Amino acid sequence: MKDQPKESARTRRLHDRAFKDDMVAQSLVPGASVAAIAMKGGINANPLFKWRREHVRPKGAVAPAGATLLPVCVIPDVAAMPSSVLTAAVGRGARPGVIELEIAGAQPRLRGTVDEAMLSSVLRALRRSE
Asked: Where along the chain do its domains lie?
């Protein structure tokens, strides 16, 4: 190998706005294949996808920063608890509250002190209505 300056194997191609707009317009036609349009235009599909995102993003809008984290409260699985634990909790004056469920499109809401028999009755009625 000689000490010759290496030519860059890759050069960044710059495309004018009209070319980008034309490629984006073609790709937004219903049923159009982005990969096929990119190949026909002599480019990789990745820049075309980027140009499409930029096209639909409002001017001055910032790209989303990622996932939004939501607070989570982990509640022990009551079904996995022995019934003696449930009976003890109800027996020592559990505070009244609200139980809201979503099962098969129904949204029952139980208010006040809910014992095991009441909850079982509601769940059986929901099962029969399916």
From this structure: 17-56, 78-129
